[in-house]
């Protein structure tokens, strides 16, 4: 009888410990998830733009130009069938795309395009964090005139 009572208490104590551990794990997970800020591409955030400008200079400028001007004849295919790097300034077509697509291209490079489309654009998923890529895009967007920024922002709302 005493053995049975002792076994029952040990079983309940084990269940109590398991429940307590589960509560701690769930609380810690909720804390981490709630603390994470959603990824934003904000050309009006001076800190994000400053980071993006520095990262652009090291990761993007060699192809897209120090002043976001792109490569010469960027709309004409080369002999290898690939297009030169386009400008990211107001003269290019970057602003014709929603932020989600721009992030996808930056992350995946050629894998972001339809099969068969060839590009020299590398994917940066292994080289930059999503926050760093968002900062680069914020910097690029910060250079666009207000009317172009507004047009591009409408793409983010409708998609």
Short description:
The protein has 159 residues and is mainly α.
Description of the structure:
The protein is an all-alpha fold and 159 residues long. The protein folds into two domains: 1-36; 46-158, Cytochrome Bc1 Complex, Chain D, domain 2 (Orthogonal Bundle). The chain has six helices and no strands. α2 (46-59) packs across α5. It starts with a helix and ends with a helix.
Note the topology.
Layout: H1 2-35, H2 46-59, H3 61-64, H4 99-108, H5 130-142, H6 146-158
Features:
about 0% strand; about 160 residues; mainly alpha; about 55% helix; Cytochrome Bc1 Complex, Chain D, domain 2
Distance between the termini: 69 Å
Secondary structure: helix percent: 55-70%
Taking all Cα atoms into account, the compactness measure Rg is: 25 Å
Overall pLDDT confidence: 85
């Amino acid at each position: 009888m005493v053995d049975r009572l002792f076994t029952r208490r040990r079983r309940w104590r084990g269940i109590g410990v398991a429940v307590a551990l589960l509560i701690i794990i769930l609380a810690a997970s909720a804390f981490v998830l709630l603390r994470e800020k959603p990824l934003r591409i904000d050309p009006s955030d001076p800190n994000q733009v400053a980071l993006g400008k520095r990262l652009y200079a090291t990761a993007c400028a060699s192809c897209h130009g120090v002043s976001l001007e792109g490569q010469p004849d960027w709309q004409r295919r080369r002999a290898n069938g690939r297009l030169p790097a386009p400008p990211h300034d107001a003269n290019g077509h970057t602003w014709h795309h929603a932020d989600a697509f721009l992030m996808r291209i930056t992350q995946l490079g050629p894998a972001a395009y339809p099969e068969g489309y060839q590009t020299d654009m590398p994917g940066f998923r292994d080289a930059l964090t999503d926050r760093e890529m968002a900062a680069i895009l914020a910097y690029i967007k910060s250079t666009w005139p207000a009317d172009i920024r507004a047009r591009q922002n409408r793409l983010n709302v409708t998609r």
